[in-house]
Every structure is written in structure tokens, then in C-alpha cells.
Design brief:
The protein is α+β, with helices and mostly antiparallel strands. It contains 2 helices and 6 strands, in the order E-H-E-E-E-E-H-E. Strands 2-5-1-6 form a 4-stranded antiparallel β-sheet. Strands 3-4 form a two-stranded antiparallel ribbon.
């Protein structure tokens, strides 16, 4: 089962400890074959919305920065519970904030 784990921007500046601990975590998951992809996302981005035939493109940044996704990890695990446990471990490393886990369907 594949899960996309996304993290919202907490506004906290990362420190050296975060980089070290996150590096160890990423190495462990990569070696285990669990981590398929990971990355940070630009703060602003572009929002594309549609209503009927109208397509609207809006450049960021957007007013609600706390709602913005700051990073992601795509993992392949045996169960939803395993994805939750990995996300718990991630939150312990990065501290206060919010992550969302969604199952990825398809090939």
C-alpha cells in the first residue's frame, strides 16, 4: 500500500539537530525500501481553479500560509497503521505541526 504523507508549514526555522535526525530517518526508510520519494515544496506555488468553462490561474503566496503544504513523503508500507507510525516518528523529529496521510490508489 502506498501512502502520501504531507506536512504543513509550521513556521519554525529548522536547526542543525533537525537536519541530522531527518537525515538518519530518511536513510533508514530508504535502506528498508519503504521511502519512494520525498521533498520540500516552494512556499507560494500556483493555484489553478475551474468553474464551468472558466480556468483561473493565481500565483502565490496565499493568505493562509499555515494551510500550505511544505513537504511530502511517498512511502510503500503494509498497512495504514504502519504509515501512521512512520508519521508519528516524523512528527517527533520535526516537532509541533500538522501532517496528513492519504492512501495513493492506482499502479
Amino acid at each position: 500500500m502506498r501512502y502520501l504523507m504531507i506536512s504543513k508549514d509550521s513556521g519554525a526555522a529548522p536547526d542543525e539537530r533537525l537536519y541530522v535526525e531527518m537525515g538518519k530517518f530518511v536513510e533508514e526508510l530508504t535502506a528498508a525500501g519503504v521511502l519512494l520519494a520525498t521533498g520540500g515544496l516552494e512556499a507560494g506555488g500556483v493555484r489553478v481553479t475551474s468553474s464551468g468553462e472558466e480556468i483561473t490561474v493565481t500565483d502565490g503566496p496565499f493568505a493562509e500560509a499555515k494551510e500550505a503544504v511544505a513537504g511530502f513523503a511517498l512511502v510503500e508500507v503494509r498497512s495504514k497503521e504502519e504509515a501512521i507510525e512512520l508519521t508519528r516518528r516524523f512528527r517527533k523529529i520535526v516537532g509541533d505541526g500538522e501532517s496528513v496521510i492519504q492512501q495513493v490508489f492506482g499502479p
